[in-house]
Amino acid sequence: MFEILIYLTMGLYLGGTILALTYLVHRSEVIAKLSFGITCVGFLCHSANLLGTMMTTGQVPIMTFKEAMSFFAWGLVLVLVIVGLTRGLQVLGAFILPLALLSLVSATLAPSPSGNTLPPVFQTVWVHVTLSMLGTIGFGVAFVAGVMYVLQERLLKSKQFNVLYFKLPPLDFLDSLNQRSILLGFPLLTLGILTGAVSAQLTKGSYLSWNPEQVWAMVTWVFYLAVILGRVTVGWRAKKAAYLTIVGFAGVILTFVGILLKSHQTVSLL
């Protein structure tokens, strides 16, 4: 039953994505409202899937690559729904939904791990994984804001005042969204890394095993720390910060790729 819900969610997200991308080149606000409505229904189905899985397995559905990617997609859409309801920023769906859909498709195509329960010694790992994924969601939103900023800045610089230009938010808003998302995601990732190190010490007798996922996680952490310090101390301009955020998200993707290579196991400790 819950597998049906995830496929239904994927179909609704796909429909919402197509409409959201169509909205970028059409002036009709009806398309945006229809896309947002379909997305909200998909989000409810997605939430029901996660809740049902948790009730069935008795553990937080975030411990495998499949579950983590599904949770990542759910978190992105949650941000979209909140921003859509509070600020009416419908154009955000054209940039967040494709990323969420890709994450959910990756979760669906990934091989299922053997076994349905975790050994008791790993029961506390969900804290580390949850914090790390919440931080990643923050970086994902910052990435989207960075892409939108670059597009809007280029349209403004070239004086291409087309449909897309008038639908994208002002540069100040996008810069603020980018910065706030990083400032929210960074401490969550930091806590995730720290709790992961503690869990690794308890389960494996070592704080770090220096596997590729851990190395890229640390590289990503250092990179975003440099971005934050650059904005606060050096005064990096919003455009530079937007580009760096886009580049930094590549580190997040590489971490996911490393986890995908071990997707038959539970998510490795950072």
Features:
2 domains, mainly alpha, 9 helices, flat, disordered C terminus, 270 residues
- Considering DSSP H and I runs of 4 or more, what fraction of the residues is helical? over 70%
Taking the alpha carbons of the first and last residues, their distance comes to: 33 Å
What's the tally of helices? Answer: 9
- Round the Cα radius of gyration to an integer and report it: 19 Å
What is the general shape?
flat
Mean of residue pLDDT values: 83
Bin the strand percentage.
under 5%
What is the helix/strand order? HHHHHHHHH
Q: Stretches where pLDDT falls below 50 for ≥5 residues? A: 116-122, 263-270
Number of strands: 0
Description of the structure:
The protein is mainly α and 270 residues long. The protein has two domains: 1-111; 120-270, no CATH class. The chain is built from nine helices and no strands. α5 (125-157) packs antiparallel against α7. The two termini are 33 Å apart. Mean pLDDT is 83; it is low at 116-122 and 263-270.
Write the layout of secondary structure elements.
Layout: H1 2-23, H2 29-57, H3 65-87, H4 93-109, H5 125-157, H6 163-167, H7 171-204, H8 212-234, H9 238-260
Helix pairs in contact: 1-2, 1-4, 2-3, 3-4, 3-5, 5-7, 5-9, 7-8, 8-9
Q: Outline of this structure?
A:
The protein has nine helices and no strands. The protein is mainly α and 270 residues long. The protein folds into two domains: 111 residues; 151 residues, no CATH class.
